[in-house]
Design goal:
By secondary structure, this protein is mainly beta. It contains no helices and eleven strands. The chain has strands spanning 2-7, 10-13, 18-26, 33-39, 46-52, 57-59, 67-72, 77-82, 91-98, 105-107, 111-116. The strands form two sheets. Strands 2, 4, 5, 6, 9, 10 and 11 form a seven-stranded mixed sheet that branches. Strands 1-3-8-7 form a four-stranded antiparallel sheet, with no helix packed on it. A hairpin with a 6-residue loop joins strand 9 and strand 10 (105-107). The chain is globular, with a radius of gyration of 13 Å. The termini are far apart.
Length: 117
């Protein structure tokens, strides 16, 4: 089992920055990819950014150049630095840990982000 705990969400104005954290614990040896997903009101959950065990990253087109995903292996923590926030970035941000090609897939409970205009 893997436990994921997100933190760092909040209410900010457009143009501001936030840094989300995802602290992972448990059987982490099975995890190959971690990522951040966002679920906006009335929308499906979508991938925002992902990072592999080897450090490769990928981003949704809407956040490229503004968001940065990183990880601290010593702290078993993944971060999402969000700059130049826009109202459309509003949503609940979920941390995900998985191993592609297997049934290993874990979710955190989410942290809300609200960006006012």
């Amino acid at each position: 089992q893997v436990q994921l705990v997100e933190s760092g969400g909040g209410l900010v104005q457009a143009g501001a920055s936030l840094r989300l954290s995802c602290a992972a614990s448990g059987s982490l040896y099975s995890i190959r990819v971690m990522g951040w997903y966002r679920q906006s009101p009335g929308e499906q959950r979508e991938l925002v950014a992902g990072i592999t065990f080897g450090g490769s990253t990928n981003y949704a087109d809407a956040v490229k150049g503004r968001f940065t995903i990183s990880k601290d292996n010593a702290k078993n923590t993944v971060y999402l630095q969000m700059n130049s926030l826009k109202p459309e970035d509003t949503g609940v941000y979920y941390c995900n840990a998985n191993s592609p090609g297997t049934s290993i897939n874990y979710w955190g409970k989410g942290t809300p982000v609200t960006v006012s205009s």
